[in-house]
Amino acid sequence: MSSVHSPAADLTARARIRDSAIVYIGRHGWRAATVRAIATDAGVSAALVIHHFGSKDGLREACDAHVTGLIDELSRQAAENLGVGDTLDLINAAPHLAPLTPYVVRTIGDGGEFAQRLWDRLVDDTERYLRAAVAGGVARPTDDERVRAELLVIFKLGTYQLARYALPPANGARPDDLDLAAITDRYGVPALELFTHGLYRTSDYLDAFRARRPAPDPAPDPTTDPATDPATAESRQRS
Asked: Does the pTM of the predicted model rise above 0.85?
């Protein structure tokens, strides 16, 4: 079993069970997970899992809290280093955190309240990094940075979710294992080429698409008070 902590840290039975659950959920999803299966992977009894977490739901809450804490720490490190990237890239850069990416991908795919919070967090982090990239002259500005951040998270999560159809499992790997190194090797350069150089040679497609979209409503004039505006007052009197 891979650990989501360094080998010397957090080796209590409770932590081993939690780490095993994170790996298992990343491979099979929460719905397929059972206390007995997770206990087997952790090398403990099902009774010990219940002793530490109370129930299957209690174990999931502990996993979610642990993953959230690790993402918080990664975000703090990125902010301190003023680096430009996103949370999933930061996870992939740390081999002992590799089980987090399958967990994140599987959790968001399964849906639910925590999945929504996790999605919002990934988009928030990506938007912040993109704004830093624009300010630093690394990335081009865009009309809606939030939507661009959403699109990039969709792109990355979709790559992780669907790459298994193009990449057969490595020797000895389980069919549901997410081979991050193989995904990066196969798609890293094409993705960077696409983001760096673009796809189309002209703006014809973009211009045509924008031309078909309705013009946005004009922004209200903050200096105009509807209560004192003459046109509004006259309209009210007529009605």
From this structure: no
